[in-house]
Design goal:
By secondary structure, the chain is of the alpha+beta class. 21% of the residues lie in helices and 25% in strands.
Length: 216
């Protein structure tokens, strides 16, 4: 048996110290109301706001699996281990949201990316998530990833599921099961694994989806 402290993860992703030059940045776009926005690397000025936003989202209990808020070192280890980006208003520099990109697995499977997205409550339903999702698809390819896998898209995360479906990256293909198995997926199919989530959370996550798609 593995000692308890080592049971938290089956593998460890080493943090990347040097960031790859991304000529695509900034990624400029517009929100629904016409506000000009841009995606850039997450700045020091907005790190604490990003951490507070993650902790708020964790407390909402609908999208991220953590049970407790992250302090500054834990946030850096989790969110900033590889690449992290923010969405901000061009004119006012207001922070609207952020996302990270990191390998889903180490070694031979490190070409499969994973990402996590956060949008400020006041900025939700304005198109921020779509702007970040579109930028993510471009940036992930620029970083050398060949596929993307979202491990835990809970069925309570309605906005995320609707977004990826609207972009044509996953389609309904439910498998009713109480196990927690990994399924072989392709770029257009989503497998929903009917589990009960973590009962210790304040608001029970009633299921999870694994979404995998490959870049053309």
């Amino acid at each position: 048996f593995v000692p308890l402290p080592l049971q938290r993860m089956a593998y460890v992703l080493d943090a990347v110290q040097e960031k790859k030059e991304l000529a695509r940045l900034p990624v400029v776009s517009q929100l629904k109301e016409g506000l000009d926005v841009e995606v850039v690397r997450l700045t020091e000025a907005h790190l604490e706001e990003a951490r507070q936003l993650l902790n708020l989202t964790i407390d909402e209990g609908q999208t991220y699996p953590q049970l407790a808020a992250l302090d500054a070192p834990a946030f850096r280890a989790y969110f900033l281990s590889h690449e992290a980006f923010e969405l901000r208003a061009i004119q006012s520099q207001e922070f609207l949201g952020c996302f990270y990109i990191k390998p889903n697995f180490p070694g031979r499977c490190s070409h499969i990316a994973n990402a996590g997205f956060l949008v400020k409550p006041a900025a939700r339903r304005r198109g921020c998530a779509r702007v970040m999702a579109e930028a993510f698809l471009q940036l992930a390819k620029d970083l050398g990833y060949r596929a993307v896998m979202f491990n835990l898209v809970f069925v309570t995360n309605i906005a995320s599921l609707a977004l990826w479906r609207s972009m044509g990256l996953c389609k309904e293909a439910e498998e009713e099961t109480r196990g927690n198995k990994n399924y072989n997926l392709n770029k257009t199919k989503k497998n929903r694994n009917k589990t009960r989530g973590n009962k210790k959370n304040k608001k029970e996550m009633k299921g999870e989806s694994n979404i995998l798609f490959c870049f053309q």
